[in-house]
Amino acid sequence: GGPGEGSVVEDGAPPAPERVLFPPTFSVSEIKNKQRRHFMFLRWKQQQRKEKLAAKKKRRKEREALGDKAPPKAIPKTIENQRVYDETTVDPNDEEVAFDEATDEFAPYFNRQTVPKILITTSDRPRGRTVRFCEQLSTVIPNSHVYYRRGLALKRIIPQCIARDFTDLIVINEDRNVPNGLVLSHLPDGPTAHFRMSSVRLRKEIKRKGKEPTEHVPEVILNNFTTRLGHSVGRMFASLFPHDPQFIGRQVATFHNQRDYIFFRFHRYIFKSEKKVGIQELGPRFTLKLRSLQKGTFDSKFGEYEWIHKRREMDTSRRKFHL
């Protein structure tokens, strides 16, 4: 900058370091020169950061000085904790919910009358990436079998699955060699959920991954499935895994619902000492977004839908979630 721009030059003395002094109504976007504008913006950001850190330090010192009398820490506002209330949020003690769950399609699994047996298949003639993803998914879900479709319609696969005592059917769809959809159908009576799938990472694409998973039954964690719809989806995922996890294998499969995106992760616990525990990701990982939930098994023509995601009607507020 030129002389007189925030710095005073005395005879023979080196110029003092400039401090950005903008007038109160000044906006960086008013600077016409692109490089100058960018430079000023970066300096302004730097200054903001310094002020923020100084304020944080000051608050911490005040808290330490007050000791036990310090006021409770403020909880930051997030989209999650500002969520619009959903009238279908489940109360754990609700008798109606308890009755519905005792008589729904998953009741035989939760009453230990059936043992999960899963068929994993693909869209017609899958490519390498989808094939590898299916194989890795079968190492996560115990008692699952991968079969590749050769032009066979899903409607014809389902009766064959039921005849062979399969309890669930998972179909991985792909687009341009990338897995992009997952259909999960609970047999023999449904329901069927259709998810959009994104952010798929295979084992070799995960940094610092652990050794191959063992054949132990993993523990299953379901987070934040709070509404009636979320409850149904959570029960669908739970019924894919056998009841008694083998904790000796230290493996855990997590379905974490956040803002209606379901993040799947597969980890192994690493016990460093009696008090310290680390986790090591095994993979694969992927993200799901529910598109529809259908009564009965897969039927795209005459199926009766319990819920369909309609973006224009449902996504009116960023703080409104359905699961």
From TrEMBL:
Composition-biased stretches (Basic and acidic residues): 62-71
Keyword rRNA processing belongs to the record: yes
Brix domain segment(s): 116-299
Gene this chain is encoded by: Rpf1
Gene3D superfamilies: Probable brix-domain ribosomal biogenesis protein (3.40.50.10480)
Chain intervals for the UniProt region annotation (Disordered): 1-21, 46-74
Lineage of the species this protein comes from: Eukaryota, Metazoa, Chordata, Craniata, Vertebrata
Keyword Glycoprotein: no
Top-level taxon of the source organism: Eukaryota
Protein name: Ribosome production factor 1
